[in-house]
Amino acid sequence: MHALSPTLRGALNMSLPFMGLMTFILLWELVVWIWSPPDYLLPSFVTVAARIFNDWNSLTANAWITGYEIMLSFVAASVAGVLGAAALHLYPRSGKILLPVLIFVQITPQISIAPILFLWLGLGLLPKVVIAALISFLPMLINSYIGFRSLDADVIDLARSMHVGRWRLFTHFELPSALPHMFVGAKIAMTYAVVGAVVAEFMASNAGLGYVIMVANGLLDGALGLASLIVLSIEGLVLYVLLSVIEGLLTPWQIAQRRGVNSG
Asked: pTM above the 0.70 mark?
């Protein structure tokens, strides 16, 4: 049996997500056709698509608000995670101070402290960003820390034999080596930031896709709720793809290595 050509393999790989999406839509329509649930429970995909088209201006306006919250919380979580990982790596004794705090953050459901944050910080943008950043912080810190410690021991020995200083070793060797791990953490943090922002909007908000979903549920408007959910999913996917593009620009060797493994 002959192996597929690279062009055919690439076309097949690009078509698989589209085929999966079409299968999901067909199953959705099949369920609606067989069981005929009321629209407030499960409207047809055609109904939801028409609602997206009719309410496009309102949905996109709320999507911008949610996207702004997601990006702020993601940037805050990424900066805090990288700085925290760098502190743990460069100053191991700092772990004795930071570790209890990190364990506390890990075992405490961030959603449970949301009412306290809204009480302290009000009902504006800041508490939503803080909640989403707390939810997405740990994946960035853990993966960054693993990345900083992933540099090959032979490279470290070579750098030390060349009398490379500690800061230069970190910036020129350990940081570039950690970038692939950091992007793994960033992708996880991005998905968590989406969840955190929407959950924060559920709890206290007057705008955003999470707010629209809550309003739709209160009005038993299933089409609007699912339309908002689809727009939110598309928004999250766009942000994830954008992060993957940035990863490809900053770590081209990693992408080439993955392609080599896949082609092999």
From this structure: yes
